[in-house]
């Protein structure tokens, strides 16, 4: 089978699923198995796809990112009483990223093996569906948790979400709401903290690729695939924001449960 159409499909899936709470890694793993594509050959392409969706986040949240970076650097030269919101958010991002790394890096080899198992990927999607089903039950009462404790909990959620089938955005937003964040704040923070985590993981993967003696492989039409991932990602992130505001995003839990169950049943060859 030619890679042209597959490349476009994988790009579209990455762009859509990266921002909706349905696990992009899980869907890419399922599609790669469905199309019988060599996942080792597609490692570099997957890396580029994630960079394309990171660019979407940086553009969509440009104002927030600039504010956090600016306030954090200026905070070193201001007294405690004059430090702005970006100072706290900056440290929260650093803490969450460190926690994510402490959990995610040891799981790296396991995750690579899990990606080839549709049974485990389907199980991850079912787990995501269960988490999203409980989101409407989370109390909306104000909680006085330390912002740094909130960062630790969200960092743990993001670390666990390296498992294929587990939605990073779904898990981190649910963790933010559980710790008392307002829904829009949880939405923004969930995606902004993904930037250093994804870029860090991408850097490690890039070093691994260039250190290996294997030929770097990119499928036919890979540039168009990246453009598709970017465009669909921008549309999906806009849609996700509207769903978050309307409170409808947890309904994706039902979708994850169905897709996860079908994937598990197919992997067990029940039908």
Could you characterize what this model shows?
This protein is 72% helix and 0% strand. It has 13 helices and no strands. Helix 1 runs parallel beside helix 12. It is globular and about 60 Å long. The two termini are 25 Å apart.
Radius of gyration: 19 Å
Q: Quote the beta fraction.
A: under 5%
How is the main sheet built?
Answer: none
Quote the distance from N terminus to C terminus: 25 Å
Number of helices: 13
Q: What would you say about this model in short?
A:
The chain is mostly helical. The chain has 13 helices and no strands.
Descriptors:
271 residues, mainly alpha, 0% strand
Layout of secondary structure:
Layout: H1 3-17, H2 24-34, H3 43-60, H4 62-75, H5 85-104, H6 108-114, H7 118-134, H8 147-160, H9 168-178, H10 183-192, H11 194-211, H12 222-246, H13 252-267
């Amino acid at each position: 089978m030619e890679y042209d159409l597959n490349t476009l499909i994988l790009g579209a899936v990455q762009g859509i699923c990266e921002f909706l709470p349905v696990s992009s890694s899980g869907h890419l793993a399922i599609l790669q198995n469905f199309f019988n594509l060599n996942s080792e050959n597609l490692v570099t392409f997957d890396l580029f796809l994630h960079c394309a969706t990171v660019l979407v986040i940086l553009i969509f949240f440009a104002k927030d990112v600039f504010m956090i970076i600016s306030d954090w650097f200026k905070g070193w030269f201001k007294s405690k009483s004059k430090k702005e919101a970006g100072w706290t958010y900056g440290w929260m991002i650093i803490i969450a990223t460190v926690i994510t790394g402490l959990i995610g890096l040891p799981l790296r080899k396991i995750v690579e093996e899990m990606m080839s198992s549709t049974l485990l990927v389907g199980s991850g999607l079912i787990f995501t569906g269960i988490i999203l089903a409980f989101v409407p039950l989370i109390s909306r009462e104000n909680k006085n948790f330390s912002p740094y404790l909130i960062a630790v909990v969200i960092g743990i959620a993001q670390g666990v979400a390296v498992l294929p089938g587990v939605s990073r955005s779904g898990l981190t937003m649910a963790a933010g709401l559980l710790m008392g964040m307002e829904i829009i704040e949880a939405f923004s923070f969930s995606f902004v903290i993904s930037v250093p985590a994804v870029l860090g993981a991408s850097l490690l993967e890039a070093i691994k690729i260039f250190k290996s003696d294997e030929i770097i492989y990119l499928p036919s039409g890979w540039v168009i695939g990246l453009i598709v991932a970017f465009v669909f990602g921008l549309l999906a992130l806009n849609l996700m924001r509207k769903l978050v505001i309307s409170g409808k995003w947890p309904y994706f839990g039902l979708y994850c449960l169905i897709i996860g169950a079908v994937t598990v049943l197919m992997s067990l060859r029940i039908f």
